[in-house]
Amino acid sequence: MSVFVVVSARIRPGTEAGFEEAFAKVRQSVRGTPGHRSDRLLASTREPGRYLLLAEWESEEAFLAWEESPVHRELTTPMRPYWAGAVERTIFGVAVDDPAS
After folding, report:
1. What pLDDT band is residue 1 in, cutting at 50, 70 and 90?
2. Sign of CA dihedral 71, 4, 26, 52
3. What is the pLDDT of residues 9-49, one digit of tens each?
4. With 0-12 CB in 10 A as exposed, 13-18 as middle and 19+ as buried, what is 28?
5. Contact at 8 Å (CB) between 7 and 53?
6. What share of the chain has pLDDT > 90, as a percent?
7. H/E element holding 50?
8. How far apart are CA 23 and CA 27, in angstroms?
9. Phi-psi region of 35 (alpha: psi -120 to 50; beta: other; left: phi over 0)
10. How confident is the model at residue 98 (pLDDT cuts 50, 70, 90)?
11. Sign of CA dihedral 71, 58, 17, 43
């Protein structure tokens, strides 16, 4: 069953375009990783500089294997200079799914 990894981050004011470009670069690098299905970057409509990164993985084990690998830190480095403060990561399992999607 799929899991969704949600990363909540605030970035330094005025760096939104650079952060979004860095995310796009990271997204391309992660594509094709075993167990990875998709990524989305959500920007708050009310709080400038607040983002949620939403990644779908085939399983928690697949995500954790990637996160714990040395390549994880290397591939996600382009986003790190933009972060302002702590970044929170939570893994969610699907409780109810929409069969039409």
Report:
1. confident
2. negative
3. 999 999 999 999 999 999 999 999 999 999 999 999 999 99
4. exposed
5. yes
6. 86
7. strand 50-57
8. 6
9. left
10. confident
11. negative
- pTM beyond 0.70: the answer is yes
Both structure tokens of 80: 């790190």
Q: Cα separations (Å) of 79 from 24, 52, 99?
A: 10, 13, 34
C-alpha angle 79-82-86 in degrees, rounded to nearest 5: 95
The DSSP bridge partners found for residue 39 are 55
Half-sphere CA count of 1, side-chain side, radius 13 A: 7
